[in-house]
Amino acid sequence: MIYITQFSYFLSGLLLALGTVCSQQAAPAVPEDGLRIMQLMKNPNGVRRYPDALPSLLRMMNEQTWAKFDTDPLFISELTDERMHENPILYINCDDQPNLEFSSEENQALRRYMELGGFVYLDAGIKASFLGTDLGHSYAAWEERPEVREWWSQVFPEKAFIPLDRSHDLFRIFFKGLPKNADLKIESSQKRLPETVLTFVEQEKWPQGTYSFVGIKVKGRLACVASPICAMGWGQDEFGHWIPPISFRIRESAENFDENLKLASFAGGTFEVTREDGLKDIIYSEPGQRPAWVQEPTGRWRIFKYYSGEEISNYAHAFYARLGMNVFLYALLN
Hints:
The chain has helices spanning 2-17, 53-64, 104-115, 146-155, 181-184, 195-205, 257-263, 310-333, and strands at residues 38-40, 74-76, 89-93, 119-123, 162-163, 214-218, 221-227, 248-252, 269-274, 280-285, 293-295, 301-307. By secondary structure, the protein is α/β, with parallel strands linked by helices. It has two domains: 2-244 and 311-333, 3-Layer(aba) Sandwich (Rossmann fold); 249-307, no CATH class. Helix 3 (104-115) links the parallel strand 3 (89-93) and strand 4 (119-123). Helix 3 (104-115) crosses helix 4 (146-155). The longest helix has 24 residues, at 310-333.
C-alpha cells in the first residue's frame, strides 16, 4: 500500500529528530507537501468544536521536529474512502461525530487499514459517564466510552482495549515529563503553577507527563489509542495565542472532610468511574453542574476544586500539545 512507502520515507527523518528540538530549516529534504493526517467527520457539514486544534498541532510539529506534516488535514466522511490507503494516520474526535455507528463494510475496511499498518487515534474515545453531553471537560477514566467499546467489538471482536502503562514509550517518544519553564516561555525563577495545584498535577493528575490512554494491538503493534479529549489543548490563534482557555479540576481534602461529606445532603446522582488501578471512584454530580466530590475506594472523600487563570491555561495547553505530538510521532515510528 502507498502509506507503507510514505511511512518508511518519514521514519529516517524522524529518527534524527528524537531527543532534540530542531528548527524546520535544519531538517533533511522531505516532500514539499508533507505527510497528511486524515480526520473523520461523518457529517461533513457538522460543527467541529476545536477547528484550529489539529492544524495548530501539525504546525507545532513542523516547527519543533524534523517531521514534515501537511497542516491541512484530509477530511473523510466514510471509512471505505479509497484515500485511506494513501495515509497512515486517522484522527477521530469522537465528540464531533453524530454517532459511532458504521456499516459492516466500513468496519471491515477499518480492520484492513490497521492490519496493513494504519494507526487510529480516538480523541475523546474515553469519556466519564458523569460528563454527559458536556464537550468542554475531560476526566482521566481508564476505560473506553461505551459507544467506542460497542463499535470496536464489530471491528476486532477478538480484542479488547487495554490501559497503557505510564511507562509506555508513547509518553516519552519525543517529549518527556511535564512542561518546564522554558516550554512555558517564562523566566526560570517564575512559578509554573500555584504550589497546591502543581503538587496534585505532578503526583496524581499527569505524573511524569502521562495521561489515561487505552489501546489495541494489531499484529503485535499498538494500532489504536483512545484518550479523554486532548484537542481542546492544541489550538492557537493567528497570533500564536492558546485557544480556548482551560481550567484545572483537582481533588482537595481537609480535616473532617470525610465525615462532613458522608453526612452532606445531595440532590444529584452518583457515577462510577474506573481508576488506573481498576477500582472505582464514585463521583457525586448534579445534572448540568460540575462534579462536586468523590468517594474513593480507599474510603477517602475529597471535593473537586477548580482553578483558572492564564498560568493554569498555558500550562494545560503546553501539556496537551506535547502529549498530542507524542501520539502522532509514536504513530509514525511504530
